[in-house]
Every structure is written in C-alpha cells, then in structure tokens.
Amino acid sequence: MNFKKWCYGFMAIAMLGLFSCKGGKKLKLNVFSVDQDIQLGKQVSQQIESDKKQFPILPERGNTEIYRYVRKITGKILNSGKVKYKSRFAWQVKIIDDPKTLNAFATPGGYIYVYTGLIKYLDSEDHLAGVMGHEIAHADLRHSTRQMTKVYGIDLLLSALTGKESAIKQVATGLLSLKFGRNHETESDEHSVIYLCPTSYKADGAAGFFKKLQSQGGGRPPQFLSTHPNPGNRVANITKKRQELKCRGTQTYRREYAKVKNSIK
Known about the structure:
Layout (H helix, E strand, L loop, with lengths): L2 H17 L1 E2 L2 E2 L7 H17 L13 H15 L13 E5 L7 E3 L4 E5 H6 L3 H16 L2 H10 L1 H8 L3 H13 L4 H15 L8 H11 L15 H15 L8 H9 L3
Parallel strand pairs: 3-5
Antiparallel strand pairs: 1-2, 4-5
Helix pairs in contact: 2-8, 5-9, 5-10, 6-7, 7-8, 9-11, 10-11
C-alpha cells in the first residue's frame, strides 16, 4: 500500500477516534491497531536494550535463577486464561539493574521491564505478581498507545512506527514517566486481580505493595503506579475485587522470594 495513502487513512481513523462522542463523552477508541502496538513495542524494546546507560539490563549470564523466577511469575499470569493478547504480544521480560529505582513498566506489545530496586523492595512473590499483573494489564488493555497519543500526539508515534530513531528514543524514555489517568489505573488494578484469581497466589497481591508504602509513611507511590487514586483507596478497591470474584488463592511464597531477592547483588 502507498505509504502516503496509508497515512491519510490512518489520520482519518485517528480523527474519528479523538472526536467521536456518545452522550457528550469521548469514545474509548485507540487510534492504533493491535498490529501497530506490536510493531511499536518491538522498536521501542530494541531502543531500550541498546541504551545501556539509561536502561542497564541485568545480564542473563550469572543471573539465570533471577530471570527464571521472574519469568515463572509472568508465565503464571499469562496462563490464567484471562490475558486477551496472550498469544499475540511478545511478553518478553527483562530486568533493569538499578537498585535505587522502584519501577516496572511494559511497552505496547508486551515487553516487560522490572527494576532490581522493585524486586528488593517487595516482600513476597504475590506482591511482585500483583505489580506485574498491573503492568501486563496496561499492555493487554492497550492503555500505553492511548495515553501516549494523548500526551505526545499522533505524529510522534507515527514517526516511531516508521523507524525514525529520535522518535523511538523519545517514546522509550516517555514510557518511564508516563502517567495514566484514574480510570486506566483502576482498570489495571482490577485486572491484576482478575489475572491472579485463577492462580495459587493471593489475588490481591498488588494491595500488599500499597500497604507497605503506607506503613513506611510513603503516601506517594512510585511513578509507575501513579497517584490516582491514592494508595489507601487502591488497597480497598483491590481487596474488594478479590472478594467479588471469590478468589481462593492464598499463597504468598515469602521464603522463596527472600532467597531470590537476596541473590541480587
């Protein structure tokens, strides 16, 4: 297909997505296709892994047990039967070696990045599973491309899709500080519970993270979990969702988690 015609067609769809209304409200449309999420995510992941200064990826050699452990958690979530794009997105996991940063994020198309600082901060496997479920939800529900279109505009993401290096770099960096709205955060919190519910985990594992923040006087969560709504409300909402779904999992796997996080240098 002629690229110029493709762009015009895409922009027409974009305008429809941005301005179509129902009852005076904007429709929840994503101007990007699933295939474009996949393409954008692949390009952004290549940029992330080439930028060793900003994203120091923990080498797999010598850290096979840590990677095996984190990927096992990811596998449990993906095999819950609740992840819509389980078979289409990449769902590749990398660990960023930065012990001072409490962070995790997922690109469009399912490339997941977890910081060693977050792993060291958490206390049990179900807590990490809850946070990873939250990030998987952002990718699976395609929040990132919606939010990045809103923040950066369509032109930048289109440039990244066409392989423009500066645009790809800006998108990759932007994912670190991308702030999702209240609705997206609530939706991802709820889907974290939905994903964990069929597993052996305590399905409200993400709530444990917020409880720890509160117990330490951390009224403001890290960037990746935003500040909307506040941690206290999120604990209540996550716990309520677990009760509504009647999730039966009770496992936290604290002992196994302690061994793995203590192996991180």
